[in-house]
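Technical annex B. To support the medicinal chemistry partners, we prepared a structural model of the target in complex with N-carbamoyl-L-aspartate, based solely on the information shown next.
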Amino acid sequence: MRHLMNPLDFSVEELDMLFDLAEDIEADPAKYAHACTGRKLATCFYEPSTRTRLSFEAAMLNLGGQVLGFSDAGSSSASKGESVSDTIRVISCYADICAMRHPKEGAPMVAAERSRIPVINAGDGGHQHPTQTLTDLLTIRALKGRLGNFTIGLCGDLKFGRTVHSLINALIRYTDIHFIFISPPELKVPDYITDMLREKGITYEEVIRLEDSISQLDLLYMTRVQRERFFNEEDYVRLKDFYILNKEKMKSAKPDMLVLHPLPRVNEISVEVDDDPRAVYFKQAQYGVYVRMALILTLLKSAD
Ligand code: NCD
């Protein structure tokens, strides 16, 4: 039985198989409409979420399965002091697979160790967000036709953004990737990541201004400033509008550069960019459902 804690839990070949399955689901959803009849997905969300939880639920419903769960810690027994280990042992009696989001880094891993059903990390603190990464990789593969051989700019809150950490982690396994990290100095990508890139001989630059590097990019991954992970509101207010991608800046970008964003967007992409064909963040959300369908099928199979 397999869990998904980190995008690296799957080899590059296994990811390719998962993405092939996701693309087959996209091409012929009816073929999968009853693939999970009689199976249940539990969504255990100890931290707010809209799209991750609902995309998991939509994925299971599209497969003909059912869903149960909670969407905030206050409405679960965690508010009575129950441990994640105990909760998952109980959930194992109710469901066939579980997606868990938790503000504490490593909590889904603790759950997986005790679980009798596959556990999917749906985001743990500022650490990892593997299913968002699978979504990002599938979007890039489907729309660019390749994973590798590109310059990717990651822009915004590179310090607290777990989607950024997860994506970098996953991309370093592909060839010829050049990273441009675009952030204010206070929100730079953590040292453990740049240390790791240097160790592996992967090239990167750190810059402050988006305008200076946008013309070099094949992909631009925008992120919001992670308000909930700031220690004080003043810093958040000072940094929140540091980047605003607008039509003017898009004029300097390559004609085939793609703009991705894990969403939710706050102000970092002006709505006037939404109609630009290079803005693919809403398509990305759709790919998120296909890839979660593929993941649920794959992990359930591993537990049969
Ligand atoms: C991301 C997250 O939760 O980390 N959202 C998501 O799952 N699509 C990004 C974010 O909240 O900024």
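Notes passed to the chemistry partners:
The beta strands are 40-45, 66-70, 97-102, 119-124, 150-155, 177-182, 204-207, 219-222, 258-260.
The pocket of N-carbamoyl-L-aspartate is lined by residues 51-52, 123, 129, 132, 162-163, 223-224, 262-264 (CB under 6 Å).
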